[in-house]
Amino acid sequence: MTPAASETRIVRVDPQRPDRESIRAAADVIIARGLVAIPTETVYGLAADALNASAVARIFVAKGRPPTNPVIVHVSDEAAATELVSRWPMEASRLADRFWPGPLTLVLPRSPRVPDVVTAGLPTVALRVPAHRVAAELIAAAERPLAAPSANPSTRLSPTAVEHVLSGLAGRIDLVLDGGPTAGGIESTVLDLSSERPRILRPGPIARSALEDLIGPIEPVAARVAGDAPMPSPGMMSRHYAPRARLVCVEQDADKRVAELVRRGLRVGWLSFAEPVDSGPGVIAIQMPRAAVAYAARLYATLHELDAQSVEWIVAELPPDSEEWHAIRDRLRRASTDE
Ligand code: TXA
Ligand code: MG
User: Fold this and answer.
1) pTM (2 decimals)?
2) For atom 29 of ligand 1, which residue has the closest CA?
3) Which ligand is nearest to the CA of 160?
4) Could you check whether the bond before residue 281 is cis, i.e. omega within 30 degrees of 0?
5) Which of 262, 280, 266 is nearest to 312 (CA)?
6) Which DSSP helix (H) or strand (E) runs through 36?
7) Ligand 2 centre distance from Cα of residue 324 (Å)
8) Quick one: pLDDT at residue 5?
9) For ligand 1, atom 15: residue with the closest CA
10) Residue 155: left if φ>0, alpha if ψ -120 to 50, beta else—which one?
11) Ligand 1 centroid, distance to 331 Cα (angstroms)
12) Sign of the C-alpha dihedral, residues 227, 229, 235, 238?
């Protein structure tokens, strides 16, 4: 295996019109089995040549990711996806036609071409076509699929900006393509099409009902599993996507919860929907957007900011229990300490 990188190059790119030289430089790193952090329309990913087992193994080392958690493979189009699977059902075609490029990951029976390290030995592979120009052009220039989990140390928050990537992985990866903050802010919807009934493994920007419109009934999100129970998706481990601070989700009376923590002498961050009132020293109150798409774009950046300000607790007001907020409620719950 290539030794771990010691210096991380940062290359600025225009997210709409990445220049050819920057993309070429990144493609050369990929071809040399190195690691490149790239912006996607959801979060930053940590990319390596998906067909090279030793390159992908470096992703796991850099992130401290357990080898039992498989990574998503990013491809240029539906045709490239079909080369990595043993079966491409009608449902996959319909969904790819409608939602690719975009934040939908499909899990399908894998082809033997996909290295074991990518799928964590599972008989399936997760695939998506990213919509971000930088990601798309890198796949094209490298002329190979890219394995790319989110570019953060395992179990930490996903990065939505280059500062987040560097705070977790500087010195552990070869290059970062800095395309500015990512637009979507939360990770893709993961849909399992490998078993009898389609099943959502991770809710995300594309809602279940939008998928059902095209392919019929889908099982709801797999329940999170604790301890040694078999996991439908290894990434469903309950505490995941977590800030350093302890986070608690509240349905109501957030102000009381905040006051209680402050009385105990703790520094508190407060994700609120209302305009912040002066809660005194020790409280950083942040007014979050009332629209789900805008909230998603801000969520991780806000949690990263609160971590940087060393708050000890974060009180997050839960958004409504409606479909458009589903993925955000999921991420808030997974970031929380109380379950
Ligand atoms: O938006 C995204 O999906 C971002 C960008 C970079 O594309 N990627 C991302 O990757 O969030 P990661 O590795 O952080 O999350 C991938 C999720 C994990 O929950 C993993 O367990 C699941 O997909 N997954 C990957 N391959 C799988 C498979 N073969 N079967 C079931 N779940 C799988
Ligand atoms: Mg991740």
Assistant:
1) 0.94
2) 125
3) 1
4) no
5) 266
6) strand 36-38
7) 21
8) 59
9) 149
10) left
11) 14
12) negative
For position 275, what pLDDT does the model report?
A: 87
Phi, psi of 107 (to 5 degrees): -105, 125
Q: Give the position of tokens 């950046």.
A: 301
Atom of ligand 1 nearest to the CA of 152: 14
Query: What is the pLDDT, as a whole number, of residue 280?
Result: 81
Low-confidence ranges of the chain (pLDDT < 70): 1-5, 222-240, 338-339
Q: Closest ligand 1 atom, CA of 118?
A: 26
Report CA Rg, the chain.
20
pLDDT digits (tens, 9 = 90+) for 120-136: 999 999 999 999 999 99
User: Which pLDDT score, from 0 to 100, does residue 339 have?
Assistant: 47
Q: Can you give the pLDDT at residue 172?
A: 98
pLDDT of 281 reads 86
Backbone angles phi, psi at 303, to 5 degrees: -65, -40
Neighbours of ion ligand 2 (CB under 5 A): 150
Ligand nearest to C-alpha 105: 1
Which two tokens mark 220?
A: 């709801």
Query: Which is the closest atom of ligand 1 to the Cα of 42?
Result: 1
Tokens 């997210």 correspond to 15
- The span from the CA of 20 to the CA of 157, in Å, is 31
Expressed in angstroms and rounded, the spacing between residue 121 Cα and the centre of ligand 1 is: 14
Q: How many residues does the chain have?
A: 339
Burial label for 130, CB within 10 Å (0-12, 13-18, 19+), is buried
Encoded tokens for 265: 């002498």
What pLDDT digit, counting tens, does each position of 300-316 carry?
999 999 999 999 999 99
What is the Cα–Cα distance from 197 to 316, expressed in whole angstroms? 34
Task: State the first-to-last Cα distance of the chain, in angstroms, to the nearest integer.
Answer: 39
Q: Residue 194 CA: which ligand 1 atom is closest?
A: 30
